[in-house]
Design a protein that fits this description.
The complex is a heterodimer of chains A (about 170) and B (about 475). With about 170 residues, chain A is α+β, with helices and mostly antiparallel strands. In chain B, the strands form nine sheets. Chain B has a six-stranded mixed beta sheet. A four-stranded antiparallel beta sheet of chain B has the order 13-12-11-34, with no helix packed on it. Chains A and B meet through α1, α2, α5 and β3 of A and β13, β18 and β30 of B.
Chain lengths: ~170, ~475
């Protein structure tokens, strides 16, 4: 199923490239993987249904939260974040074959390159804490989005606080 | 583009060898006919003594010099691949006027407000008419089809009050490159009257943005310095960020999430192919070219720690230039390639540091309040532009030693300055509070003449390439 979807996306990409640029790259980019285009927010579409055990939907219903938040310019996992990551580690222990991506994010009040580095720091801080709780490092990958994918759209302290985050996304 | 190296006569297509004797002999001998004479390489100053007619670059935005730009006549309107030579003469006039207007130093009077000149007038202006239009300076020229498919564009600058010629240049281009001839003409006039190096005939790489704030589509795009000849390079499926033209414009280094991870790719403009700069599994970002185009600087995060590396563009072993536990990121070479200014939070917040190109002798240069980021060394070498974060995000400059800090803009979020090739204009992008969209802006080194550069969709991460040859 997924390969069909990717094929369709590739076809769309060919059309889009042909339409917009004379010298488009002959090497077409692959369709974005799940790390690019999904899962930035809580997926509640399965609420009311019983999620398949071990799925991302199951993860979202079982853990305290899929994300931890950080203070301004900080990347240490605070007490609240530790409790959240402990619940994630328990779930990951229950499904030892599941892998996860930890996405690191920063708020918009920083410069682009620095925020990419800051997102890396935050994702790694979450990853390292999960590893300290016994999750195998091999199961965890990090990716920084810097300030590219805010979860809250405002330009205010409340929004920025929600955007300084590390989000764990399990791979179905 | 070829600059003309011999006398070119618009009527006959006849080519005569120039008497290589300099200005006066050219004027005396060559101009007797109605021929327009085009000189190359020689930035001629036909009137040596007075030189009063200048613009003050430190007063940009005052737009005090009124300059008339009538349409460029053609000896015989012929059809080219880019339209008739008559039509090209109109469009070239418009581009010259637009360039000069954008510089903030001139107040152009466009062709719609003045008479259509004849080919004969190109080298013999009717100065009383232009005085009557209050013009202090006058640009005249011609467009001629050469018969070999190319066109010649002649470009002359006159001091109206003194009734004398100040400079002339000629350019032989493919008709499709007519805008470049116009930019070269505007550059010649700008340089002659300001004493500064040219910058109009250059290109910009940037990121075109569309879509909702939480999931922006970001495409690599390029355009001329005035926004023309716009072209999208990537289709937006993968987020693209922070492009930089190579010094020869043949390649663009930029960040893409092509495989889901942030990595630097080098895109070949000619072939459309691209490749990863390093095969590392780690995140790489903030690409920067060395002035000679042989090396790339990039930042790489390993286990959350980001350092700056240098690698030969064609591949090879990366050299790690910083090794602290803090975030070291970005970096910009001095024009002679001997030093690098970069950003680091090793002392707490983000500040600017300078090191030798081999990573030695790292020292902090920013000591004002607030945080400093995205340093870019001026192509003239005399200044470093940066983003200062203290309340608002503002664009500023300081000397390479950190002295003489000046802030040029004041808005909610101005970010990521890069330099025009002549080091006079700084380009950045601006985002309003609560706004989804960002836009490309330019400001003069003095902080005046701040203006938005129109782009087809929203824009960010603009970066200027060098002046085209």
């Amino acid at each position: 199923m997924k390969s069909i979807r990717n094929t369709l996306l590739m076809a769309t990409a060919v059309i889009a490239l042909g339409a917009c640029a004379k010298k488009a790259p002959p090497e077409l980019p692959p369709a974005p993987g799940p790390a690019v285009d999904n899962s930035m927010g809580q997926d509640n579409s399965n609420v009311g249904n019983v999620a398949v055990p071990g799925s991302q939907a199951d993860f979202l219903t079982k853990v305290r939260s899929d994300r931890i938040l950080f203070d301004l310019d900080r990347y240490n996992v605070d007490a609240d974040g530790q409790i959240t990551l402990q619940s994630q580690a328990q779930w990951l222990a229950q499904y030892p074959n599941k892998q996860a991506i930890i996405e690191g994010h920063a708020d918009e009040r920083g410069t682009r390159d620095y925020n990419l580095a800051l997102g890396e720091r935050r994702a790694n801080a979450a990853k390292n804490y999960l590893v300290s709780l016994g999750v195998s490092e091999q199961r965890l990958r990090v990716v920084s989005y810097g300030k590219e994918r805010p979860a809250a759209m405002g330009s205010d302290e409340g929004s920025w606080a929600q955007n300084r985050r590390a989000v764990t996304v399990t791979i179905d | 583009m070829r600059t003309v190296t011999s006398f070119l006569f618009p009527f006959s297509g006849e080519n005569r060898s120039p008497e290589r004797g300099g200005t006066s002999s050219l004027l005396d001998s060559g101009f007797r006919r109605k021929a327009a004479v085009v000189i190359a390489g020689l930035m001629m100053t036909a009137t040596p003594a007075h030189a009063q007619l200048t613009v003050d670059v430190d007063n940009a935005g005052s737009a005090d010099l009124i300059i008339a730009v009538p349409a460029l006549p053609t000896p015989r309107s012929e059809t080219t691949l880019a339209g008739t030579t008559e039509d090209l003469g109109n469009r070239i006039s418009d581009v010259i006027a637009s360039d000069l207007d954008r510089s903030g130093l001139f107040k152009p009077i466009g062709r719609s407000a003045v008479k259509q000149i004849t080919v004969d007038e190109v080298t013999a202006p009717t100065f009383p008419y232009w005085q009557g239009r209050s013009a202090a300076a006058l640009i005249q020229g011609f467009v001629r089809s050469n018969g070999d498919g190319k066109i010649t564009v002649g470009c002359y600058l006159y001091d109206v009050a003194l009734g004398s010629e100040l400079t002339r240049q000629g350019f032989v281009v493919e008709p499709a490159d007519w805008r470049r001839a116009a930019h070269k003409c505007a550059d010649a006039i700008y340089s002659r009257l300001s004493g500064e190096s040219p910058f109009f005939d250059s290109r910009i790489a940037y990121i075109a943005e569309t879509g909702p704030k939480g999931n922006r589509t970001k495409r690599l795009a390029i355009m001329d310095s005035d926004g023309a000849n716009h072209r999208f390079i990537t289709n937006g499926q993968s987020t693209a960020l922070t492009p930089r033209f190579s010094p020869d414009y043949k390649q663009i280094a930029y960040l893409s999430y092509l495989d889901g991870n942030p990595r630097i790719y080098v895109y070949d403009v000619g072939t459309g192919r691209q490749r990863l700069v390093t095969q590392s599994r780690n995140a790489t970002f903030a690409p920067r070219w060395s002035p000679d185009g042989r090396f790339l600087l990039y930042s790489m995060a390993i286990g959350g720690n980001t350092d700056i590396y240098k690698i030969p563009v064609e591949g090879g072993t990366p050299i790690r230039l910083t090794d602290g536990p803090g975030i070291d990121v970005g970096g910009s070479f001095s024009p002679d390639g001997s030093q690098i200014v970069f950003e680091s939070d090793r002392g707490g917040g983000q500040q600017l540091y300078v090191m030798n190109a081999d990573g030695s002798n790292q020292r902090r240069i920013s000591f004002g309040g607030g945080r400093y980021a995205t340093p870019e060394w001026s192509p003239r070498g005399d200044l470093i532009a940066f983003t200062k974060m203290q309340g608002n995000f503002r664009i500023g400059v300081m000397s390479p030693s950190g002295s003489g800090e000046r802030l040029l803009t004041n808005s909610w979020q101005d970010e990521a300055p890069t330099w025009a090739p002549n080091g006079r204009v700084i380009q950045f992008f601006r985002t309003g509070r609560g706004a989804v969209s960002s836009s490309v802006w330019q400001v003069d080194l003095t902080g005046s003449n701040e203006r938005r550069l129109a782009t087809p969709v929203d824009g960010s991460d603009p970066s200027w390439g060098p002046i085209l040859p």
